[in-house]
Amino acid sequence: MLRRDRLFLAATLTAVFSADLYFILLPKLRSLGRPHSCSCGPGNLSLPRQGGLATPLLSNWTSVPLPDSATPEPADGGSKLEKLFAHTLYNIQTPSLGPEERLLQAEQLIEYYRRKVSRWERHMKLYSEAAAVANISVTEHEVTYDPDASWMKFHLGINRYALYSRDDPAVLQLLKDMQNMAVVSADYTQDEKALKGACDCTQVVKPSGHHLKLALKMKNFAKAMFKPMRQQRDEETPEDSFYFVDFQRHNAEIAAFHLDRILDFQRVPPVAGRLVNVTGEVLQVTHNEDLRAVFFTSPANNTCFFAKCLYVCKTEYAVCGRPDLLEGSLSAYLPGLSIAPRISIPNPWTRSYTFTGREEWEVNPFYCDTVKQLYPYNSGNRLLNIIDMSIFDFLTGNMDRHHYEIFTKFGDEGFLLHLDNARGFGKHSQDETSILAPLSQCCMIKRSTLLRLQLLARSEFRLSDVMRESLEGDPLRPVLTEPHLLALDRRLQKVLRVVQRCVRRLGEEEVITKDFIKATGKPQTATVGKRVR
Amino acid sequence: MLRRDRLFLAATLTAVFSADLYFILLPKLRSLGRPHSCSCGPGNLSLPRQGGLATPLLSNWTSVPLPDSATPEPADGGSKLEKLFAHTLYNIQTPSLGPEERLLQAEQLIEYYRRKVSRWERHMKLYSEAAAVANISVTEHEVTYDPDASWMKFHLGINRYALYSRDDPAVLQLLKDMQNMAVVSADYTQDEKALKGACDCTQVVKPSGHHLKLALKMKNFAKAMFKPMRQQRDEETPEDSFYFVDFQRHNAEIAAFHLDRILDFQRVPPVAGRLVNVTGEVLQVTHNEDLRAVFFTSPANNTCFFAKCLYVCKTEYAVCGRPDLLEGSLSAYLPGLSIAPRISIPNPWTRSYTFTGREEWEVNPFYCDTVKQLYPYNSGNRLLNIIDMSIFDFLTGNMDRHHYEIFTKFGDEGFLLHLDNARGFGKHSQDETSILAPLSQCCMIKRSTLLRLQLLARSEFRLSDVMRESLEGDPLRPVLTEPHLLALDRRLQKVLRVVQRCVRRLGEEEVITKDFIKATGKPQTATVGKRVR
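ok -> structure tokens follow
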């Protein structure tokens, strides 16, 4: 294991060195022969210059064109996304993984899958008999057992560094499967079932009638969470809405997956858009009588359904097809909790879910100092991961990150899952800088994250352009409206300015944490990742 | 009493004769000397011609200009509304009223008012002491005892024929008072209190979170029901919404009052628009802790509040000022039930308040024959009054008339109150002809109603024009958008076409019921009003 660590370290150092050579030294040489072309607009980061191989001169990052693209906008209209993903920074090799660094073992998952199939077959036999007696007609789809199914490969690919590798063909196939594959059953999610239709008037904010989501099972047993479209893409969240009662947006869920991939985090499970036939792909394939009971035909003759609990009383909360087709997001399920347990941990920067309450971080500017003392934020990368997450959430505008999840198997050094992103992209005209509190209060950021953000601030890789291009691949394109895409660029600049202010105050050394290393040690004895020059 | 009846009969006959002379004979004489100018557009009613003094030749009604206005559009741009109200049809004298025909006696109401004032004073004394102890600051407004208050006069003017007479200065003053007078207290309405915050999941449709209304008391003890603005005037009800979960619209409440007045029904209590300061005129003057508790400040720093029950859990249902000012409708309260009891009777043409249910009238085209056999629809004017109400509701597009109310004092011959009109004016682009079922299935209409509808179909008095002009007097102008105003004209034509089809099928004699008479007899022995030629 130690040997592998050393190999990884060497590979990483090589990559970092190449990146420095590529971006720092070469541009420097190029710029020697011509006048300084730095424009001083807000888009330019001008951190104090500090020399050194592994410390990029950040002021150059947004002003110097890449050697291989002399014009900021490629004249050939080539793919910015492809260029981005071909960039050195996006091609740092992952070390080969030992069994302990993979979430699941193949045998284990195949066994799990087999059990699922036989349980399904038993269930279908009983159900068909009961349905015949009760005179319920259910469309029966053939299911297939396919050990090469894309969802299996996705689950097997999850490791201690990320949910998937960006160019994994299995992930692309999984997206396609979620877009097209026949749905064999539909049901409420476990969350919804847990509510059991209970009304609780003392609950000020939850459950909200807006939590309308279903679990869909595909013919090869892939499972996806379906979040239906609740509002038009150009409808902004009303200014008086609290974030915790905001709609869940299917397009935010899709866009968040693409953004996470573009940031090279790979912490959001694959999400695809799909035009779901709510009659054929939900009503006629569900075996849940409760779910069947919430379907109705609207006065306009559209097929509609609403969620459980309070919502049973509320047609205002219903969603309707046109007449049966309804846009929605399909998020790939993670492996079941029985084989891949996760824990849910309160976000130290959680918000007060009341009308008037304020959390400590909102009133105490030195809150981070307290957090830094506390386990598990006092060692390892956890706090840096929280900061990554806050940047991600700030870019999407998601204020609803009350918890985060990690796989227990990877312990405290595991990456944070960025699940449930549907409350992003509600307002394009407003940047909620409070979401950045972890970054602005702690004044720390991973070097790898900062480098990628800086890359995405450059016109050659402009975040809005690569997002637009990436989202073009989704069947529900355009997933985001132009104002939302452009807001990403504006917010990215704001993130960089926060880093810039931190560096001015504390120095680069303090602020920009050298990562690209694998933290060592067991969860119980996690230590802060060593800085590498 | 009989004597007064006879006098009234004579007055009415004179009026009808004048109307006939004015509209039928004179235009006929005029049209003799020129080619037939009838255009055959959908706007023209062409009932089969039948001669006779009291049987207007309806085909002429919309094609022949009035003798006193040679051009359809007055060249002087004069007030169409004034001309309408100056019309003979709108100036049929009400008989002088005996005590039994008035809802209230002055002494009784004054006594009631005095008791209210002294109860208020006692309450305020106790409340101020308690508030001082609890450290609650409540704005105390001076109240005045004014036996000449406009609301007193309005209450005293209610009689067996109508809620008010159109040119009663007290009603105009009451509208002004509701628009401007200081609010001294605010509370939930009795309806809301009856819910007592109960959640009932078995209730599919009610209570809806959209029932957000408050009772406001003015400094002279006038009481008004405040319905706040829930949506913009140009937002149409979504096509998938059921009528029973539709928003209550403050502007519909205002517009319905004006329409009812223009139809000369006077069955809707006065309604005025007002920009209410929800902080100063609700929060700071309420003595109800529950109401105070539902106020909050939104993320956009606006003052918001929401309703009781389910809604306590639901900020989605909240309404917000900007930052404190909020548009709303103020509907004058009727006299308290203790002094003027009313009964609420199910509308025979009520709808099924479920997703799939259908009422008999929706499937049985001969439903009216059944209704006609049943008390109280088998005698008197009750069925004609229901038909009036259906025309009124069709014009506004209100599908939510499940009950109607009458004052018990006037028994079965009392007029129907058209209360609660906030579910009208939801869709301008759609005419819900099912609302007209009472008219189209029974094929009956009061002659007085038909004559006024025909008048309003003429360009000189075009309904949309007089409504626009009438609504101009409200502080929240424009109360209705142009598409909603124009929909009134289109719907009016549809009403007239339904009548026309009935007349073609059954003959004018059967369809157009001669009224303008006072039905005689006691409630128990009510008979169908005699037809008068």
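The CA atoms of residues 268 and 418 of chain B lie 5 Å apart.
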